[in-house]
Design brief:
Oligomer: single chain
Helix content: 25-40%
Strand content: 15-25%
Strand order of the largest sheet: 1-8-6
Shape: globular
Largest sheet: 3 strands, antiparallel
Order of helices and strands: HHEEEEEEEEHEHH
């Protein structure tokens, strides 16, 4: 059994409505008092993208620099997990992930539309990012029809 939370755990949280961090801590501290006794039912559709300081046109090489402007999207069904701030320097010594955008909606089509909005509202200046590859992919017909693979 893998008891570690994975980087994509927000997708599970949004679809099930369960705070996995809270559930895991509760289970560890008071196993008999946990409220998560059965598998929660899934509701809706969630999509996560990871925004990195990387250049897709250059083989995804890191793009260090100073974040001169930063604006994450807000709104219903939009979740952002990030540890960067405007003015922060992004180096090459650590993982180049700047943040994660996660959206939730009643169905796949609405989730795609919400992710498109969230990506368009995200502003990160000063470092190159892989954001454009996601903007392009959410409007491509094959992605919309679920006709693509991980080799997209």
């Amino acid at each position: 059994m893998n008891t570690r939370l994975q980087v994509e755990h927000p997708v599970t949280e949004l679809v099930t409505g369960v705070d996995l961090v809270w559930a895991q801590i509760t289970q560890a501290l008071a196993p008999k008092e946990t409220t998560l006794r059965e598998t929660p039912s899934a509701r809706g559709h969630a999509i996560e993208v990871r925004i990195y300081a990387e250049d897709p046109a250059q083989g995804f090489i890191p793009t260090p620099g100073k974040v001169s402007r930063l604006k994450w999207p807000t709104g219903p069904g939009i979740r952002v997990e990030s540890g960067i701030e405007e003015g922060q320097t992004i180096g090459t010594q650590f993982d180049s992930m700047l943040g994660k955008l996660i959206v939730h909606a009643p169905n796949r089509d609405h989730a795609i539309a919400r992710m498109k909005f969230a990506l368009e509202e995200t502003l990160i200046f000063g470092v190159g990012t892989n954001q454009t590859i996601f903007v392009r992919s959410v409007i491509i017909r094959e992605f919309m029809k679920v006709a693509c693979t991980r080799h997209f």
